[in-house]
Amino acid sequence: MRILVCGATGFIGCHLTRRLVAEGHDVRGVDLLPPRYMEASGFELVTGDLRDPAFVADVVDGPFDEIYQLAADMGGAGYLFTGENDATVMFSSAMINQNMLRAACERDIGRIFYSSSACIYPVENQLEPDNPNCAEDSAYPANPDSEYGWEKLFSERLYMAFARNEGLTVRIARFHNIFGPHCAWNDGKEKAPAALARKVAEAADGGEIEIWGDGLQTRSFLYVDQCLEGTLRLMRSDWAGPVNIGSDEMVSIDRLVDMLIGISGKRIAKRYVEGPQGVRGRNSDNRLIREKLGWSPSQPLIDGLRPTYAWISEQVSAA
């Protein structure tokens, strides 16, 4: 197949392009920046700004069997939940999605995948750390906890409107905290597993690390290989979504830190400090993906943390 990956040098995008090339597809990747941690090999990489409609028209220059739209302005809690980046996050991502959809309508596109987020779920459904409600049909009445979540929810509706009105074949997934090697780990956009792995790797044996909040907030984290498997299964299925792609192994941030400390083999104390935390509890509800795809993520969290910590520890040592 001829496949276009938008956001190809980002964390998920670089893993996705590598998998698609390994499957034997003709892949074109596009991104604003060159690769940071993984070599771009085996596919055509085009560098440019997807906020520019003229550039998008040049990139989508003919028929594609599949388009994966992963490009967005995003990051972890320290980037998304302070409020300081809201205008940039919303404006940039909305422009990218509008440009991609219009270009897709003007070309022969088999189907287009949009990566939404668990951040679209209402705040009031995630107040209890032990009992969050993230079933797909709980998204409305809408009340995301961040402008990032509002933009993702708007863009979901935009893709579904183009499917109804323009005949595009659309697939939508709500990603839940994807992690793994070759992710952002020290630039202010890193997510919790990478940020905490970096802190543990940097800490001396017998030292301490800071944790934002009281450590009792809960999340689930999905290893990137499992994310790719779910994404490709959804893309090539008859189900349009939206559907959660995430782990249902919910852990507290305290527990996540303990797992990373155990992997490191160090003795490290925890100190709790003020910092952006997001919602109190979030977990992927996987009932719908099991029903529609006959599959759901199954890899234990610890199995993904080991290679992730090893990679981040290497980056810390080399820095």
Poorly predicted residue ranges: none
- Element pattern in H and E: EHEEHEHHEHEEHEEEHEEHEHH
What would you call the shape? globular
CATH class of the largest domain: Alpha Beta
Domains, number: 2
- Number of DSSP helices? 10
Predict the CATH topology of the largest domain: Rossmann fold
The percentage helix is: 25-40%
**Overall pLDDT, averaged?**
94
The side-by-side strand order for the widest beta sheet comes to 3-2-1-4-5-6-11
CATH superfamily of the largest domain: NAD(P)-binding Rossmann-like Domain
Total count of strands: 13
Compute the CA-based radius of gyration: 19 Å
Give the N-to-C terminal Cα separation.
40 Å
- Largest beta-sheet details: 7 strands, parallel
Give the name of the CATH architecture of the largest domain.
Answer: 3-Layer(aba) Sandwich
Structural class comes to alpha/beta
Summarize the structure.
39% of the residues lie in helices and 18% in strands. With 319 residues, the protein is of the alpha/beta class.
Describe the 3D structure:
Helix content is 39%, strand content 18%. It has 319 residues and is an alpha/beta fold. The protein has 2 domains: 2-178 and 222-245, Rossmann fold; 180-220 and 249-281 and 299-318, Alpha-Beta Complex (UDP-galactose 4-epimerase, domain 1), CATH 3.90.25.10. The strands form 4 sheets. A 7-stranded parallel sheet has the order 3-2-1-4-5-6-11, with helices on both faces. A two-stranded parallel ribbon has the order 7-10. Helix 6 crosses helix 8 (253-264), helix 6 (192-202) packs across helix 10 and helix 8 packs across helix 10 (301-318). The radius of gyration is 19 Å and the shape is globular. The mean pLDDT is 94.
